[in-house]
Amino acid sequence: MSPAETPAALGFRMPAEWEPHHATWLGWPHNRSDWPGKITTVQWVYGEIVRKLAPGEIARILVNSAAHERQARRVLERVGIDLGGGRVEFFRFPTNRGWTRDFGPVFLRRDQSPAELAVARFRFNAWAKYPDWKHDDRIPVRAAKRLGLRLFPARAGARDVVLEGGSIDVNGHGSLLATEECLLDRTVQARNPALERADIEAVLRDYLGVTQVLWLGKGIAGDDTHGHVDDVCRFVGPRTVVLCRETNPGDANYRALEENRERLAGMRLEDGSTVEVVPLPMPTPLFFDRRRLPASYANFYIANAAVLVPTFNDPNDRIALGILAELFADRPVVGIHAVDLVWGLGTIHCLTQQEPAAVSRKPQAVVRR
Predict the structure, then answer these.
(1) Which of 6, 82, 157, 348: CA 20 to 30 A from 261?
(2) CATH fold of 3-356, please?
(3) Catalytic residue numbers?
């Protein structure tokens, strides 16, 4: 692809998550190895997520088969969702797992005339860790074809680029958050071992329309993805981020999160302004089979009708919900019980992928602290 034909050159960008959505994509759970002994319980959590999404946007649900769709329908009907109201759509696209944030279509939008949606097609290889990923890898292509959208295969030279949606977060104005641990490590779960930092930044610039990459260091303990930023730091406005903070110096996350705070203090956004950092607490550590789980309040999802926040039966639940409620004055902040979800090594943001509204509107107001 010549420089003049990249999405950015053609006027496309990845909108911020708080900008208006047309739909949210989810993959209905089915892989029992992701939630040992909890797959049935997790389906009810999905039902609650869809129940909170449906008042504000369409839920587009990936299912493996007619039988899988019937299973999903039964759960959704029992939690009170009107499946005849046009707020839920099913796509029989087989998946390996349900982590739609990471393998789902990364939607772009061109705001100037003619307004247009498109899909940036990054490759998915199961976080460079698991052998079963080929169904998941096909989802962006199948989604773009079904919706009739232009598809931009992301490449660096002749190489396809691997990138998961949970490894990045954007403010919609040109700045992007990522961790060096995830995108630049060449020895552990290396996605693109042949690419340098400058190559990765060029891909993000050309295919997502960003101009400034804010590099944090490491992710949190227990993260199966090796450093996804959506468990650590998230944009909540054009100039504001929430950053997880651990107050216990003996905790495995303390040093990495403090280093990230120090990095952000010296960073500038795309317009040269400083980053406003709001600390977000961490829950008490959770374990399964003596393994640390990546429980984090930063794994929230900003939907049209609500901000959905994972909660963990923890005293810090109400503190995190209160902080986010102050930051989002235009929609309710709702806690979703995620102790069962996080057994799968991810929660709400990991499960969802936003499809922006086709026509740009003024971004929703975000209140700063």
Answers:
(1) 348
(2) L-arginine/glycine Amidinotransferase; Chain A (3.75.10)
(3) 350
